[in-house]
Specification:
With 201 residues, this protein is mainly α.
Length: 201
């Protein structure tokens, strides 16, 4: 995803950029969003499983963030606040997609791949094939989970958020986050049972 953000405030801290944003500095907002755009896009992509939908959701996230930046008081990290908006926007988009009939041309690309790490250098073809197949199987299994199970797995295991950060993003007690993550992992393991030999290799 490429957005036309400027980089005129590269040497400023996030707190300084936030202060300028609240004062109406659009360049500061552009630079602040540029620092977070890839991670927000990746989160939207994992949740929506479609590049165009994820791009739209990321754009909407930034628009909502701009409109609400004056309300951000620093009670949590800015990234946590921004990702909470992204989760809400993606949830709204997912609901709209379920209610809107999709043409066959879109259904054919419904399983668009989520972001994947680059293959290590000098990896032999068999290792590459095995790694790609594992990624495909895990991605397919994730797509079969309920949205709240997939969301907590993506935030914890893929995005790398702590229990406390996820609790802030989802506005849930930490105990609820932990129990939901345990249930989500159990559900994922159940989906992966048929492909167990792929991960035992």
């Amino acid at each position: 995803m490429r957005l036309p953000f400027l980089s005129s405030n590269k040497n400023l801290t996030e707190a300084q950029l936030l202060e300028r944003c609240r004062a109406g500095d659009l360049d500061a907002f552009d630079d602040l969003m540029a620092r977070h755009q890839q991670r927000v896009f990746n989160l939207c992509l994992w949740l929506l499983r479609d590049h165009d939908a994820a791009n739209d959701a990321a754009q909407e996230t930034f628009i909502r963030a701009y409109r609400a930046i004056g309300n951000f008081r620093g009670d949590c990290a800015f990234s946590t606040w921004l990702h909470r908006i992204a989760v809400n926007v993606s949830g709204d988009a997912s609901t709209r997609r379920r209610k809107t009939p999709q043409p066959l041309s879109e259904l054919a690309t419904e399983d668009s791949p989520a972001p994947e790490p680059a293959a290590p250098l000098r990896e032999n073809p068999l290792e590459t094939l095995t790694r790609n197949e594992r990624q495909r199987v895990v991605r397919d299994a994730l797509n079969q989970l309920s949205e709240h199970h997939r969301l907590v797995l993506v935030l914890f295991d893929i995005q790398g958020y702590s229990y406390e950060e996820i609790a802030q993003v989802l506005e849930l007690p930490i105990g609820t986050v932990k129990s939901r993550l345990n249930r989500a992992r159990a559900a994922l393991r159940d989906k992966l049972k048929l492909s167990r030999e792929l991960f035992d290799a």
